[in-house]
Structure formats: C-alpha cells, structure tokens
C-alpha cells in the first residue's frame, strides 16, 4: 500500500476535529473515584519459569468495578532495591501471554509490569486470563462497539480504569520505584498508554507506538480496516446512531487524553499504516501537552511500524527519564 493519508508536512500541523465533552474531566474523576472505593488488593505470586535472569510474579489486582485483573511483574533476578518501572499495555486481541515473552525491559535493569486486557487474549500471542464480566447492549463482534450506547457503558471505560489501577498495583510492590514510572505500549497498548498519560499525573515518560483509539471522527471514515471498521459496520446496521456513537467515543479519544499529558513522550507513526492511520497518530502527538515530545516516523511501514527499530529508539530515549 502506497501513502494514502496526508503528506508528512501536513501531518505535522494536523489537528483533530474531535469535540471534547464538557464533562470529560468530571467523567473520569468520578470513574476513578468509584474504582478506588474497591480495595486494590494487589497480590504478587512468584512463579517458576525456568528463566535464570529474571524473577516473575503472577499478579492479580482489582480493576474497574473491583473485577480481578491479571498481569505479570518481571524483575531482574538480582533485584534488591526499588527499580525504575515500565508498565506496558498490549495490542488489540492479545493478552499478557507467557512470561518469557517479556524479557526486554527487565534486561535493562528495570521492573516490568504487563497488564492483561479484560476479555481479550484469544486472537494472537500466548493468551490472556482476565474476563470482562460486564454485559451490554447489542454490539458488532469485537470490542469497539461494546457499550457504545453510552459513555458509562463503553468497554474502554473499564479498560482505561484497569490501566490506571495497574499502575497503582505495580507501584505497590516494594521493588518498584513509583517516582520513576513509564507507561508504554503499541497499537491498542499505545492508546491505553495515552489514556494513562492523561489520567496519571506523575509519570516520568510515556511512549505510545502507532497508537490506536485516536481521532475517532477521522479514523472511522478514513480506513476500512479493523478494528476501526467495527464501528462503521455497527453503524451500517444501526442507522442514524452516528452522532450518539461519536459522542460516546469522544470520552475515550486519545486526542483528549493527550491534551492532559504531563510527561515527556515518544510517539511513533508509520506512513502506510491503514490500521492506525498516521493522521490519527499525529492528531494525538500534536495535542500532547508536555513540551518535551518527539515522534519517530517510518516512511514505508504499515502497522508493524518500527518494530525492533522502535524498541531500540525507546531504549535510547528512556535513558534520560527512568
């Protein structure tokens, strides 16, 4: 696929037309307040992995609604004092997988927490172990339209709340340094990292790669590739619901979380990416509030983005922050 979105010079100036709800901050403040009425109850159970360079804990904590959410905490084997903390969120359809899939960040001497995504983990990778016990109105298969009838019911209200609670859970372990916490992820994981960057005020850095869940008004009309296409197919059946759906989605748009970003950020975009079109990524990048921000651009890549090259870029970049 050749370039299909705006030219790079226009991407660097692009701003989203997504309308921020007037009660955006109140909505999220209330959501997180309700979640914190439940005891975090973070439990860290050592697991035998056969790996000699890391120690792994099977983690369970209370997320949205007090629902149990799983994760892995991977620590360097010799860890004896609090370490910089990397909290990672995974891509659409995936789960936390198996511990040996998560060796990079612990190999740098950091603590690494990987959050399972509720209801997902059955499309690729090593699987997941977190259910989503909340039902909802009729939805198109997938996750993008679950509860799209109202912001209070939307699936990503639960996921983003889980993610904030994941940071709190990871920070509660005695071998993590809460003052040096980084949030990162790719695709859906990048979109979740953006939300965390807007909701957790004291992160030291945020690194969303080819982030999903950004600039819904443009994304849903520019690409016909899933997962965004799930929304269009839902609206193809539920005619006349477009305005209502976009209103719900506006509470979860990475552009609005980016406007509240208080930490340095490293983004990435791929100019042939039809899953998360580059203009939607730049919409969030250009809205990011903290003045220390950079974006890696991969000219001829699709949704794989920079892959290992972006890993290398993040490794170099994070040395300055955690």
TrEMBL record:
One of its GO terms (biological process) is polysaccharide metabolic process. The keyword Nucleus does not apply. The keyword rRNA processing does not apply. SUPFAM superfamilies: alpha/beta-Hydrolases. GO terms for molecular function: cephalosporin-C deacetylase activity. PANTHER family: CEPHALOSPORIN-C DEACETYLASE. InterPro entries: AB_hydrolase_fold (IPR029058), AXE1_dom (IPR008391), CE7 (IPR039069). Residues 1-319 form the Acetyl xylan esterase domain. Gene3D superfamilies: alpha/beta hydrolase (3.40.50.1820). Substrate binds at residue 92. Keywords: Hydrolase. It comes from Streptomyces glaucescens. This is Cephalosporin-C deacetylase. The active site is at residues 187, 273, 303. It is an enzyme of class 3 (hydrolase). It comes from the Bacteria. Its EC number is 3.1.1.41.
């Amino acid at each position: 696929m050749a370039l299909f979105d705006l030219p790079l010079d226009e991407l660097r100036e692009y701003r989203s037309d997504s309308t921020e709800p007037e009660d955006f901050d109140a909505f999220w403040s209330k959501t997180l307040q309700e979640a914190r009425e439940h005891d975090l109850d973070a439990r860290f159970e050592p697991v035998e992995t056969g790996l000699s360079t890391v120690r792994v804990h099977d983690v369970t904590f209370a997320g949205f609604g007090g629902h149990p959410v799983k994760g892995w905490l991977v620590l360097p084997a010799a860890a004896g004092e609090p370490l910089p903390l990397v909290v990672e969120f995974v891509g659409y359809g995936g789960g936390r997988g198996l511990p040996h899939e998560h060796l990079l960040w612990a190999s740098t001497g950091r603590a690494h927490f990987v959050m399972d995504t509720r209801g997902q983990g059955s499309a690729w990778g090593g699987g997941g172990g977190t259910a989503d016990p909340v039902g909802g109105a009729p939805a198109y298969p997938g996750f993008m339209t679950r509860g799209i009838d109202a912001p209070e019911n939307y699936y990503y209200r639960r996921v983003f709340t889980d993610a904030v609670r994941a940071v709190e859970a990871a920070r509660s372990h005695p071998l993590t340094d809460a003052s040096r916490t980084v949030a990162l992820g790719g695709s859906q994981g990048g979109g979740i990292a953006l939300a965390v960057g807007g909701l957790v005020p004291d992160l030291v850095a945020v690194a969303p790669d080819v982030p999903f869940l950004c600039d819904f008004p443009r994304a849903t009309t520019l690409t016909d590739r899933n997962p965004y296409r799930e929304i269009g197919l839902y609206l193809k059946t539920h005619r006349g619901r477009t305005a209502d759906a976009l209103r719900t989605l506006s509470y979860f748009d990475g552009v609005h979380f980016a406007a509240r970003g208080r930490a340095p950020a490293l983004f990435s975009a791929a100019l042939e990416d039809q899953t998360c079109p580059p203009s939607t990524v730049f919409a969030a990048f250009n809205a990011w509030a903290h003045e220390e921000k950079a974006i890696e651009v991969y000219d001829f890549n699709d949704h794989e983005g920079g892959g290992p090259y972006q890993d290398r870029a993040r490794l170099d970049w994070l040395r300055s922050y955690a």
